[in-house]
Design brief:
Pfam families: AMP-binding. This protein is an alpha/beta fold and about 625 residues long. Helices cover about 35% and strands about 20% of the residues. It folds into 3 domains: about 30-185 and about 225-260, ANL, N-terminal domain (Rossmann fold, 3-Layer(aba) Sandwich); about 285-430 and about 450-470, Roll (Luciferase, domain 3), CATH 2.30.38; about 480-600, ANL, C-terminal domain (GMP Synthetase, Chain A, domain 3), CATH 3.30.300. The longest helix is centred in the C-terminal third of the chain and has 37 residues, at about 580-615.
Amino acid sequence: MFAKRHDFSLHSQLELISNKEPNPNLTMVQAFQQMVTNYQDDNMLGSRNGLSGESKLTQSYRYLSFIEVEKYVQTLSFYLSQHINVNDRVAIFSKNCPMVWISELSVQYLNGVSVSLYDTLGDVNIQYCLEITQSKVIIIGKNQKQILENILPNLNYAPIVLDITYLEEYITTNQQNFNALCAKTADDTSNILFSSGTSGSPKAVLLTSRNMIAGGANMGYRFLDYQGIMLSYLPLAHVFEKNFEFLFMTRGGAIAFSSQGTKNLIQDIKLSGVTMLIGVPRVWQKIYNGVKSKTGPLWPIFVAFMYLKVFLMYLFPKYEKTGKTPIDIVFKPISKNFPKLTFVVSGSSAVSKQLRIFLQTCFCARLGTGYGLTETGANALYICGTMKYWDDNTLGFTTINTEVKIIPDDTGHYDLQKTKIGEICVKSNSVARFIIRDSYDNKICQLDSEDFYHTGDMGILNPDGSISFLRRKNLVIKLQQGEFLDLEKIEKIIEQIEGVEHAFVTAQPQDYAPVCIVLSTLQIQNLQEKIDIIVRKSGLKGFCVPKASKQLYGQEWLDNRDLFTPSAKKIHNGFQKVFDKDINELRQNCSELKPQFSKKIIAVIGVSIAVFFIYMK
């Protein structure tokens, strides 16, 4: 069963400008050279604290033009040519800054392979990433030096380490002409990006220039603006951020780098005048929670205006296509922080209804949401404007040059023909063909015989041809009585409780009920009772209700890299390890409740049998 293709002409104000669209048949170097030819003196990369993000913070952005970036890339390519050869891997381990893109393009000039590392993966995973790729050179940022120093003595090889601030000094005090090598094609490996590691070690995905360029081009088709300013604050090692930035530059847009991550986010947005802002649901949720807290008792009235605005956008397409309506003065306290914003994009996973309506209205800009994975080049499904969302987990319609289908669940939980539920599979020119198994020379194909990638995500095909996310295949547990538990679905229901930020539900096959760890900023009264009520009210059976729970509060949980990935996805294995003692205690509490429950059942059965025999006599 195939998802429907997105109707690109509706729900969009963007006219197609063919000569500004990315060409997946080019290498990344060829695409960059085309940018320089097209946009020359236009702004490309901007920063408030220097090329490597380590200079004194200023109150304005200083931009490099496309021509200036090309000169720096040529100079750095000349320097790096002393250290790397064709297909050598170069790890870039730094916070977002102009030097990351200059380094990336220089590696491509030399026909090398760029390896992007999250600076929040943790020592063990970073060592794993370096060893599995055997990165010959590591370009290191100032804030990442200590992590690397901890890892270097344990590495199974000796890399060349280059300080990114030294490279900045070199390219700004020297000028070298260097012609890009042209041995590679669009189908040769250009980048290695790692999956978020939610279910174990990060997966090393081998992406070609075609995958990288097509990932942004397919998602951005009549979807993202031409020539504007995009703020770079999500990790550049994330495929969603990286491909969208490259797309934005291909269309003549400028990238403004956040000065200190999310710390100075609002000030960076004001000073840079960003026109597009991308994020992930858990980042948006933090903003939503902050606005709700500041609004206080006026929140219900504020929500009423949100729904009124959505209704107006539904009635009048001109409002839907811009995100602006006559009642926007109500949202001025929020939108004034984003004076030039025209488009908000939420990716990685689906957004809840309350969060979606908040994003559709309060920023006074168009909203688009999408679904993709590292393995698919961030591309697969998207939805925009006031198009119908069937539920909180609606992912959208198929992007251009892409096919998405659902196939029968190999666990046998669902009948595809009856339920329209199955595993989501993606085929596209953005989908990576190979991943690394245990060493760079040992690659395995991740596609089936028809070139579809099996995502491991379960989805449901909606009546209009869109797809909604159901759950991960591996987040279903069969309890001792034979009942199937959808752990992720239960978590999302519990997270609807006022004050709950994150819920982690777990169970073992020998258990008779799940248990729950709840993370919040403040203590929630009568939590267990609220969990019981909301899970039952949602329509789930009684065996889905966690019979024991523990609440932890008073921390900024999203910063914990044992629990969340840099893109704010839960690491279920991490929760299991971090809260192992708490979980075992909760499971013990459940097991103590079970005998009492069993005795009642036995007593009822016994009485029923006795009554039956008396009646028969």
